[in-house]
Amino acid sequence: MKIEIKKIPEYQTAYIFYKGSYEKIPEILGSVVGWLMEKNVEIQMPVYGTYFNSPLEVSEEELEWEMGASFNGKLKAEDNIQIKTVPEQTVVSTIFKGPYGEASSVYVDLFEYAEKEGYQIFGPVTEIYMNSPEFVPESELLTEVQFPVSKK
């Protein structure tokens, strides 16, 4: 597994913040992508999920997460869809191959690598879903796992 520290350029994203079960992920993600398609803007990167807490720490009803996609163009927030600009950031990153639900298996490796390289993690994990179970078997799914880092 290749782990790296890299810079992510600033990007604009449309997203929905949700509190509750991960079972809602496909529905929430479909809402965001559908809305962007309706608005006829260019979707920039694969879709992502950012997870602010863990099912190991809180109950299913208390899980906090967002699903989104970056885009080019000018849009205003509507209903439950929010817009934000994510500033340039440095992340520790790796690509996980396998079922989405198992991507967290690399989190400890990323923490250890960041520490070894003199960085500390200071924010929530983002998982970028690089392909879809609609087109490839679960065993071939690719997820880029990123944590924001700063030099110690």
Walkthrough of the structure:
The chain has a single domain, classed as Alpha-Beta Barrel (Multidrug-efflux Transporter 1 Regulator Bmrr, Chain A), CATH 3.20.80. The model has no long low-confidence stretch (mean pLDDT 95). The protein has 152 residues and is α+β, with helices and mostly antiparallel strands. It has helices at residues 25-38, 107-116; strands at 3-8, 11-19, 42-43, 48-51, 64-72, 82-86, 89-97, 119-121, 125-129, 142-151. The chain has two helices and ten strands. 16% of the residues lie in helices and 41% in strands. Strands 1, 2, 3, 4, 5, 6, 7, 8, 9 and 10 form a ten-stranded antiparallel sheet that branches.
Give the tags.
globular, about 150 residues, Multidrug-efflux Transporter 1 Regulator Bmrr, Chain A, single chain, alpha+beta
Concise overview:
Helices cover 16% and strands 41% of the residues. The protein is an alpha+beta fold.
Mean pLDDT score, rounded? 95
- Summarize the main sheet: 10 strands, antiparallel
CATH class: Alpha Beta
* Distance between the amino and carboxyl termini: 24 Å
